[in-house]
Amino acid sequence: MAARHPHLPVMRVAEADILIVPGYKGSPENHWQTRWERKLSTARRVAQAEWTKPVREDWTQSIAAAVNASTRPVVIVAHSLGVAAAVQAIPGFQKPVSGAFFVAPPDVENSSIRPKHLMTFGPYPRDPLPFPSLLVASRNDMFSSFAAAEDIAGAWGSLFIDAGEAGHINADSGHGPWPEGLLTFGKFMSRLPAGS
After folding, report:
1. Model pTM?
2. Could you give the CA distance from residue 104 to residue 42 in angstroms, rounded to a whole number?
3. Over 70: is that where the pLDDT of 8 sits?
């Protein structure tokens, strides 16, 4: 992603609708997404009717509805299966998305990864995304190889961030507060043009 011109205004969190898109089973109280939702004044969670038995059509419709109901520029913050759902929801977006911050997307084409129903969210589209994006991946994520994450980031045109050996980048892997993630998100937001 190209650096912003220093004299152009940049987007601030208060000027955006930050859509928090959790993955399989949702994000519990101590998950970084839940913490960010409480911390960022314009953040709201995209609710799903069924967190433990995700249905692709239901999840993508919920995300598209949240995007289309937004009144400010939209920035998506998705984790795990939420990344897959957000990308599959793009055809239903009737409003432009300003950017997306993707963390630990699962490899939805690997049949050896459990739960098996993750594959119902694949295959990923491989066209460049119609908005700026950043993808954070771990080198020891049980839901995706590092190579698969790097490959899909390249296809989408996402800025790729190597998180090292960080597990699935969730509360279980010690990423409750995840201050490095919030710092990276702030830098990502500063590269988005105001009013985009």
Report:
1. 0.94
2. 23
3. no
Length of the chain: 196
Q: What is the pLDDT of residues 43-80, one digit of tens each?
A: 999 999 999 999 999 999 999 999 999 999 999 999 99
Asked if 104 and 56 touch (Cβ cutoff 8 Å), the reply is no
Confidence of residue 6 (pLDDT cuts 50, 70, 90): low
Instruction: Note whether 95 and 66 are within 8 A (CB).
Output: no
Distance (Å, rounded) from C-alpha 152 to C-alpha 169? 18
The matching CATH number, chosen from 2.40.10.220, 3.40.50.620, 3.40.50.1820, 3.20.20.70, for 13-190 is 3.40.50.1820
Contact (CB, 8 A) for 18 and 186 = no
Reading the block at residue 55, the tokens are 């249905």
Report yes or no: 20 and 42 within 8 Å, Cβ to Cβ. no
Least Cα distance to 66 among 54, 77, 55, 79 occurs for 77
- Assess whether the previous peptide bond of 132 is cis (omega < 30° from 0): no
